[in-house]
Amino acid sequence: MQKIAIAVHGGAGTILRSAMSPEKERHYLNALESAVKVGHHILASGRTALEAVIKTVQYLEDEPIFNAGKGSVFTHEGHHEMDAAVMCGQTLTAGAVAGVRQVRNPILLADEVRMQSEHVLLSGAGAEEFGRERGLIFEPDSYFYDEYRYQQWLEAQRTDTVTLDHTEDRKFGTVGAVAVDVSGNLAAATSTGGMTNKKYNRIGDSPIIGAGTYAANHTCAVSCTGHGEYFMRAVVAYDVACLMEYKGVNLQQACDYVVKDKLVKQGGEGGLIAVDQAANIILSFNSEGMYRASRLNNESIYSRIYKD
């Protein structure tokens, strides 16, 4: 009988227990576990991995503690520019958006690009125009405002630096989900608000198919979180799949090599979540921590933040 599985992440980086209050830690874990429940319920109902990852990431976008959707960080100009991508492992169709503003759920717009356009990646005003044509929900800038993110932005402005989500603990706040359904189909979805104080419409790896997001039934589904420039150069998500397809290694071996060897040698920090058709779940990272959770079949939810 085909197993079902889902995994989520809420960012990776220098996440230290000593810098985290018990209340904040519980808040993160509760949010991750709730996201897993959203996706697992869909899978347990016999619905698709694609629906599961989209709804799961949508939930994470609506949770302001993560750097995606409502909790997105501020750009240099004081706006929110969001990226998202989704890929179906069965059909290899994919949709992505980059640098979009005021879209309540960028992951839903990415899926509209996948389903309703002849393209894979749309950006900026054009992507927003397409979203309005498709009837997506847009919100005023005030919807995305978060006081903590605002203070991060002020500090980054003061020092004229681009920071990776949090100035004090270098956390990469991208969110993502991967899943396998009862039919053995895989899917991956990723969403992010990018870097605090980013300039020049900078775009990271999340919306780049093969870099931050990838899914193919014959190999795996992958969603990444980390320093996007390194993940793009290393084509991380596709690299994991390639190792499985061309070298014949298993998912664990592929993830460990890319994340803990190749990326480290290049100076790239972060991690990824991945799943294959056999419902093997990998939560791999080379940083101090990664907000992560997963569930296999009807087993208990696994949720962790730190290395241990």
TrEMBL record:
SUPFAM superfamilies: N-terminal nucleophile aminohydrolases (Ntn hydrolases) (SSF56235)
Biological-process GO terms, alphabetical: proteolysis
Active site: 174
Gene3D superfamilies, per the entry: (Glycosyl)asparaginase
Assigned keywords, A-Z: Autocatalytic cleavage, Hydrolase, Protease
Site note Cleavage, residues: 173-174
UniProt xrefs under CDD domains: Asparaginase_2
Gene Ontology molecular-function annotations: hydrolase activity, acting on carbon-nitrogen (but not peptide) bonds, in linear amides; peptidase activity
Residues where substrate binds: 202-205, 225-228
Pfam families (UniProt xref): Asparaginase_2 (PF01112)
PANTHER family (alphabetical): L-ASPARAGINASE (PTHR10188), N(4)-(BETA-N-ACETYLGLUCOSAMINYL)-L-ASPARAGINASE (PTHR10188:SF6)
The name this protein goes by in its record: Isoaspartyl peptidase
Organism: Adhaeribacter aerolatus
